[in-house]
Amino acid sequence: MITRILRRFAASVILLFLVSIISFYLIILAPGDVSQSVELNPRMSPETIAAIRQRSDVDAPPSERYLAWFSGLFSGNAGYSYLYDSPAMSLVLPRLGNTLLLSASAYLLAWLVGLPLGIAAAVTPRKWLSGAIYALASTAISMPRIFVALLAILFVARTGWLPLGGRVALNHDQLNLMGRFGDTLAHLVLPAIVLSLYPMALYVMQSRAALSEALTGDYVRTARAKGIPESLVVYRHALRNAVNPLITLLGFSIGDLLGGAVLVETIMAWPGLGKLTVEAVLARDAYVVLTSVLFSSVMLIGGNFVAEILLNRLDPRVRRPT
Fold first, then answer.
1. In terms of DSSP H, where are the helices of 124-243?
2. pLDDT digit string (tens) for 155-193?
């Protein structure tokens, strides 16, 4: 198993390297650059624009620019953002933390709600309850995130129950420890719920289907014939086999959360990596876009790597001889 993990890790590193090359050339070779965005500012003199072009190396060969950018990543120098007048890394890292907080909260919420609802739909003797849960999950899957986000904003604007936009309030630093925690939580609740609805619905439907199939297995009938309580049959025997497809969904869920976070952060004004990337793309701020894409790729590839390790650990049947 150790050899398999090392091989998978090496493949992930190679994949990340290829992503960095492809992303760099797609962004750098695209028409336009940051100097053209700066030219729209009437306060910028031709000398300033020329200095920006020289400092950003937009006229250098793409191969030299890539080597300079990639080698600088290891020293924390990922280029300079002329949109924010700041190093790209100092912009991306705080936004990355905000996106991780939002995505982790949404993923945890999807598991905490989706898995129990899926189990209830699979084991309940009341067909109307199972049908209601399935209908709600189907509705959540079919609703576009942009529509859900706008509905959530409209609801909060009408009720005023939660703050709208931002990660913290203006007086956040003046609050005590519990006050700061409550303030962050209040700002996090709404975008986390919106972002979690789609993976939550997936977990409901997947856990319902997997557990329903597991409950028809011979080992479940044997356990029931031995007089084992039904709760132990469900949670100790059937659920252990039904959870494997949910772990497989981990990699897909991370990709969906990262893609959905771009939309949710932009619409709901959450200061995350997705919102920063959209602003940088519109301003042709290449190094911010590149660094954001690279960190997003690290999270996506890392999530799939962790999912494979967990699946190999929990289910010996998927292990192949190395």
1. 127-142, 145-159, 177-214, 218-225, 230-232, 239-242
2. 888 888 888 888 888 788 788 888 888 888 988 999 999
* CA quadruple 192, 197, 199, 203: dihedral sign: positive
Q: Which two tokens stand for residue 42?
A: 């009437």
Q: Report residue 48 as tokens.
A: 């300033």
CA 50 from chain center: how many Å?
Answer: 38
Question: C-alpha distances in angstroms, 223 versus 209, 218, 310?
Answer: 20, 9, 26
- C-alpha distance from residue 265 to each of 62, 92, 215, 269 (Å): 32, 14, 40, 5
Can you give the pTM of this predicted structure? 0.80
**CA nearest to 283, candidates 19, 18, 27, 23:** 27
DSSP 125: S
* Two tokens, residue 191: 């975008």
- 27-36: Cβ within 8 A, 24+ apart: 27/286, 27/289, 27/290, 27/293, 28/62, 28/65, 28/66, 28/286, 29/62, 32/284, 33/58, 33/284, 33/286, 34/58, 34/82, 34/83, 34/283, 34/284, 34/285, 34/286, 36/284
265 touches 274 (CB < 8 A)? yes
CATH architecture of 94-284: Orthogonal Bundle (1.10)
The average confidence (pLDDT) of the chain is 80
The answer to whether 292 touches 270, Cβ cutoff 8 Å, is no
Per-residue pLDDT of 67-78, as tens digits, reads 888 888 888 888
Compute the radius of gyration of the chain from its Cα atoms.
Answer: 24
Spell out a b/e string for 148-180, using b for 16 or more CB atoms within 10 Å of the CB, else e: bbeebbeebeeeeeebeeebbbeeeeeeeeeee
The H or E element containing residue 87 is strand 86-87
